[in-house]
Amino acid sequence: MRATAAERQRDVVFAFPGQGAQWVGMADELMNSSPIFADRMRECARAIDPLVDWSLLDAVRSGELDRVDVVQPALFAMMASLAAIWESLGIAPDAVVGHSQGEIAAACVAGALSLEDSAKVVVARSKALRVLSGHGGMLSVSLPAEEVRDLVGQWTGVSLAAINGPASTVVAGHPAALDEVAEYCAARNVRTRRVPVDYASHSAQVEQVRAELSTELAGITWHEAEIPFYSAVTGGLLDTATLDPDYWYDNLRRTVEFEQATRTLLADGHGIFIEVSPHPVLTFALRETVDATGAEALTIGSIRRDDGGMPRLLASLGELYALGAEVDWAPVFAAHAARLTDLPTYPFARERYWLEDSGQATADVTAAGLAQAGHPLLGAVVAVADSGGRVVHRPGVGREPAVAGGSCRRRNNSLPWYGFPRTRDPRG
């Protein structure tokens, strides 16, 4: 891959997804191989563990991730810790964007929320969703948002939950209604997929937990972000002085305007999107929007499901470097005593060891005291004085078509098989 000068100047965006990137054991390898990741994860544990009845470190290393109030804090900690690795490698974001719960990690990395307040938001949000568990669901639909708005209007209690890309949307509502939407779409060859959750976030069902969420978040403090924060609630750049409890309720209730946020980032000159997550789930939507706008932007992930160690992360880093980003390689090689070495100041010297074709069809061997063999595959013949035998020599490479065409494969000069019947006596 090659990068142009323009590509090297493009700003980096850290993109944080919502739910769906989790997998059992997602932090295990990096906890063992990356001190930076492990330190940040322990900081997250110190902020989250007092608020819950389970262990964050157990959850991200080997725990079951079947409860929303476990999954979402665990994903937050994974995203915050992966961001720390990227930053340690010299890849600092010029902007951040989050999808649904991913906005909490985005706000934390941007400096708009402290780690402790971020933990309070993600825990309170996930506990509110547990109240809704068992009463709803979500369904992805491969249609543009305008068509989906018309579609969901036919069912009571179904909402347009997320607009991820030009033809990637999600609806939420009662499970029975979602089944009807899926059947309606299938009859018209529209692809749908049930999201593996049992609640309907970004729908009217969220309204019943508004008071509880506001109470839980009453004590958080928000700050002016150090890094530009692009909101998937508003679809644009946001002043983080507005990240109050009402904003976090809107983050859970309103439609996720991720496509619009991506378009705004592209319009503002951002061209490298790194999905900071344990498995890429936003990359397709990002790529879809990039292609629809005709922009020249790059999209890469961090680690992948069942491939969550430093080799996978370094492969992503290498891809980013090949595409033109500046990378600080010193931390990568610190444990290996690696050093830079100067290239030679002189050109590389080359010496050929293969026989060159003289261009002559035959050679005069009499000047060297040899006799012509009189055979198309033999170059000369010498009589052995004490035995009466003869020593025969083959011609140079390329002088005879039979030798040049069939006997020099793999640089192995050998006599073709069809020459042997006539070599018992060079006179034929």
* Tally of helical runs: 16
Q: What is the arithmetic mean of pLDDT?
A: 87
The CATH homologous superfamily name of the largest domain equals Malonyl-Coenzyme A Acyl Carrier Protein, domain 2
CATH architectural type of the largest domain: 3-Layer(aba) Sandwich
The number of distinct structural domains comes to 3
Overview of this protein structure:
By secondary structure, the protein is an alpha/beta fold. The protein folds into three domains: 259 residues, 3-Layer(aba) Sandwich (Malonyl-Coenzyme A Acyl Carrier Protein, domain 2); 62 residues, Malonyl-CoA ACP transacylase, ACP-binding (Alpha-Beta Plaits, 2-Layer Sandwich), CATH 3.30.70; 57 residues, no CATH class. Helices cover 37% and strands 12% of the residues. It contains 16 helices and twelve strands. Strands 8-7-2-1-9-10 form a six-stranded mixed β-sheet, with helices on both faces. α13 links the parallel β9 and β10. α3 runs antiparallel to α5. The N terminus is likely disordered.
